[in-house]
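User: Hey, quick favor. My workstation is busy. Could you predict this chain's structure for me?
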Amino acid sequence: MEESWGHVLPSDVPESTSSNIGERLTSSAHANRGSGFPGVKKRGLSSRSWIKIDQDGNSKVLELDKAKIMRHCSLPSRDLRLLDPLFIYPSTILGREKAIVVNLEQIRCIITAEEVILMNSLDINVVQYNSELCKRLQTKKDQADDLPFEFKALELALELTCMSLDVKVRELEMEIYPVLDELASSINTLNLERVRRLKGQLLTLTQRVQKVRDELEHLMDDDGDMAEMYLTEKKQRSEGNTPSELNAQNNFFSGIRLVSKSAPVSPIASTNGAPRLQRAFSSIVTSKQGSLSSSHDGENIEQLEMLLEAYFVVIDHTLSKLLSLKEYIDDTEDLINIKLGNVQNHLIQFELLLTAATFVATLFAAVAGVFGMNFVASVFDYPSAFTWVLVITGAGCGLLYCSFLLYFRYKKVFPL
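Assistant: No problem, here it is.
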């Protein structure tokens, strides 16, 4: 990338750039006065802070607007919208003609064949990505490496994303397991509220991990998308043939000229033979280049597929831990439901016993109420007669209650 398409911060700003910034601020102020909302900028006019990392591991902080990035990387505006921090988009990796758009959690960057344009942020993952990528590029600058520059940058983004998600899963495990064990032993409102909050965090984290996993799986299933992400090879093809192919072509044509000078040929053959040989050689070279490019594509696709598969295994293991944690929560909920059901059964049994006792007491009260009425009967001539009535009624009610208990035991309503 040339230095003219963005200015470095916090160094001195050129006069032309400062005038452009002043014009943008003036136009923005006029637009704000017209809209009636002071202090609000129109989308697309303001610049953002980006970090540029080249192949040698040198990083610079640049102030770039969306139009310059679109022109430099040949990206549509919808791809840059994925990197906008004002919007929340799921994790996405897009392969384009000259760049790879990466949106993995907090790491949002554009990877080209020569540099990485990273959105500047104070997030720990962004800072770690910047420092670690510069360190790796400077360390391996003099060492031979099979991976091209764009795959190194993509690998580090995947590595930090998988590590960050795995750390969050471990922290959630350490927090949620004691709460679930405490809830299983003591069911109260406080523990239920804590589990509800942690379960919401678990579902959110599961969706994030699932999206990264689905994105990697989608890339591995599509060979065209993986071939589109090999930016270094596409850049070499656009620059022309390799030096060995050019030497072979020059030697071939020099041999043709030597043969044409030494051997006598007819005028007709001399006028038509060389162009035919040239066309035949160009077709052979074209077919050879096509076969070489296809073989390189297959090799590079396999190389990228192995890279993606390694981190797919890591993120799949993280997802399996989240699913295991969700199953543990479901098992705890089932245990709580069983305990609550058991308590409810005990309450129903107690209510049944109380209902039977109430029925028996109601019969006893009815007999006492009948004899409390003001009517003439010979039984009242004996002073001990009413006492015997109460004893016989109480004994009958007791026998009735025992019969209820025996019936409940026979029907196995509850153990006695």
